[in-house]
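Predict fold of Virulence factor MviN; 452 aa.
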Amino acid sequence: MMFGLLASRGLGVIRQSIFNALFGTGIEANAYYAASRLPDTLFNLIAGGALTHAFLPVFLSYEKNKGELAAWRLTSLVFNILFVAITILILIGEFLAPTFVNTILVPGYSAAEKSLTTDLTRIMLLQPLILGLGTLVTGVLNSRRQFLLPALSIAVYNVGIILGLVVTLAMPHIGIYGPTYGVLLAAVLQVGVQIPPLLKQGVHYIFIWDIHHPGLREVIRLLGPNTLGVGVAYAALIVETTYTSYLPDQASLAALHNAFMLQGLPVALISQAVGQAILPDLTAQAAAKRYFRMRQTTLKIMGASIALLVPAAIVLALTGKPLIHLLFQHGAFDAHSSQLTYLALIGYAIALPGSAAGDLITRGFFALKDAQTPLYTNIFALLSRWGLILLLLNVLPGDLVILSIPLALACSATAEAVLLLAILLWRLHLHVKMDQGVKRLQRRRQYLKNLP
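Predicted 3D structure, encoded as tokens:
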């Protein structure tokens, strides 16, 4: 998993270097980054990580208790419902895109920037349908402990965007529309590379439409709070974009995007890879009521990961400036763009431990089929984040005002991670009394005690 995600981030850096050389931190770059907000939100609301976390425990339970055929019937049903739901949302999004962009997403931009952002948004809105259906494929492969190809598929996604950038290099008049259509090609490639291993798992598609299916209801029951939690997280990103559109430096949104991408490397290697890999094991331990072992696994994984995250944040802050200069300062990406990106990166480096740790700890709640607790903590983090942004916007002077976005994330994410860990350990402490292994040990001790 780490190897696959490392390959993805490496290609991501190449993709971003080409993109920055072509578009820098100008109008087209800002419109491109802003346009991705609505498609990303729709995808993650219905599918994305939320669906994986809701679907995987139910799929494993059906496969274990009701057999493989019942598990494939459930998968087919979820696929069909997902296709219809995402299609409806995309149609609504296409219709409401101008209003959303002009009044909510980037109200501080000029009319030309708003128009371009709307056009790019409408093109990218096809992406959630492709990736959403591919999420089920990823979930099934992860349930079979197949992690390499799903991780490499994310790397292949970057290939699609790079091909779009190559088209722009060959035909400059296409401009920002090259990488925009490349996003759609990327989604097709990401899903397509996972089809062969899925077929090897003996997948059986069945046309079924039963909204009263108990397995579907269980998935929806878990997906509801997950969806609200993801909605809260993406609402924060949209609000950040709104605030950023009013910042005096027009390069701010592009600088924040580049800094966040660099911060994403240690997050992917430590949080996403480890989190996705341990979710099936934590789920299996919870299903078998082996809560004592689950608590041990949680403490070991969290402790080791956090021990890596703090040094990673320090290294990122210290090496960020020369790294940005080496990777990005070419073509349209000038010295001012580099300096602004480095300022944002310092803030995101501070946010790294809390953000990644919170994401890891949330997997323990998903394994317990508890999506409500992360939802409540997400709401807490969102409200505190908004308040901190407003405070920092009025406190930080000059160019430092860009730090208001990442520093607000740092404070809210760290507080949420501490809260999540405390609640999870408390929950597992209570569940240990029901642990099957602990009960056997107690019975053995009682038996030995009663021996003459």
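The chain has a mean pLDDT of 82.
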